[in-house]
Design goal:
The structure holds 2 protein chains of 2 kinds.
Chain A (H helix, E strand, L loop, with lengths): L1 H13 L5 H8 L8 H25 L5 H18 L2 H16 L2 H30 L1
Helix pairs in contact in A: 1-6, 3-4, 3-6, 4-5, 5-6
Chain B lengths: L13 E5 L3 H13 L3 E5 L2 H9 L6 E5 L7 H10 L5 E6 L4 H9 L4 E4 L4 H6 L4
Parallel strand pairs in B: 1-2, 1-3, 3-4, 4-5
Helix pairs in contact in B: 2-3
Chain lengths: 134, 127
């Protein structure tokens, strides 16, 4: 089982979903907080779901307030950086560049990809945490 | 992460985390805990100013740049105007030269690009 956990984790790094910041968080786990990383991840996915919803609503309205969108994405990028969510962070950066360029189509395309990467990371991390508990 | 984690509990240092992002609040709080540093967390620059007005003081302030109500640049300026001499580390994912310069000129002692790590934080406490 330990091997399975290690393999799941290694694949997350090999496929670029996570970077070394995730390992920094794992180093913070101790007897007082044995589930610290899972707690941070849970908070991240709760907070990022809210941001995704806000951005979805803003984009659906059709009028692109690039400043507001950039502000939401700044938050998203910040959280993603802190947890080591590498692919999501990259999409956040691209989205913000499209915001600065006033490129609505670029924003829509990137946001679609961001949601895909975010959903995949969520699923893989859930698998990892479940396997870690067995 | 190489090397042992220093334990600074005996030094009785105190730190203040100023960040509106919940994930950052949690991770920065834990990072400081791990170093044995007592710390408080507030959500924006205005709260950072308010907590100092209430009489609390800190050895180190981790100040995010972009926050609602009052951002890190304004808060840093006000704290310095109040005579607060704590070390203030500007912490942000934004790292464009102009923004860094503006933040430093507000009164920072250090500028630290996110993400924060144990080793980055520990280096700020070498007295």
């Amino acid at each position: 089982m330990q091997r399975q956990v290690a393999l799941i984790k290694q694949s997350l790094f090999d496929q670029g979903y996570l970077d070394e910041q995730f390992m920094e968080l794992e180093e913070l786990q101790d007897d007082a907080n044995p589930n610290f990383v899972e707690e941070v991840a849970t908070l991240y996915f709760k907070d990022s779901a809210r941001l995704i919803n806000n951005i979805d609503q803003a984009l659906e309205r059709g009028s692109f307030d690039f400043n507001r969108l950039d502000s939401y994405m700044h938050q998203f990028k910040g959280s993603s950086t802190s947890i080591g969510a590498s692919k999501v962070k990259t999409e956040c950066t691209m989205f913000r560049e499209y915001c600065r360029a006033g490129n609505a189509e670029g924003c829509l395309r990137t946001f679609k990809q961001l949601k895909k990467e975010h959903a995949t990371l969520r699923k893989k991390l859930e698998q990892y945490f479940q396997a870690s508990k067995r | 992460m190489a090397g042992e984690v220093p334990n600074l509990a005996e030094s009785k240092l105190r730190a203040l985390v100023v960040d509106d992002n919940l994930v950052n609040q949690m991770t920065h709080h834990k990072l400081l805990d791990r170093l044995g540093i007592q710390n408080d967390v507030v959500c924006n620059g205005q709260e950072a100013v308010d907590v100092h007005c209430s009489g609390r003081n800190y050895d180190l302030i981790l100040m995010d740049m972009e926050m609602p109500i009052m951002n890190g640049i304004q808060a840093t300026k006000i704290l310095r105007e109040m005579g607060i001499e704590s070390k203030i580390a500007g912490v942000t994912t934004r790292a464009e030269e102009e923004e860094r310069k503006e933040f430093m000129e507000a009164g920072l002692n250090y500028f630290q690009e996110k993400p924060l790590t144990i080793s980055k934080l520990a280096s700020k406490f070498k007295y």
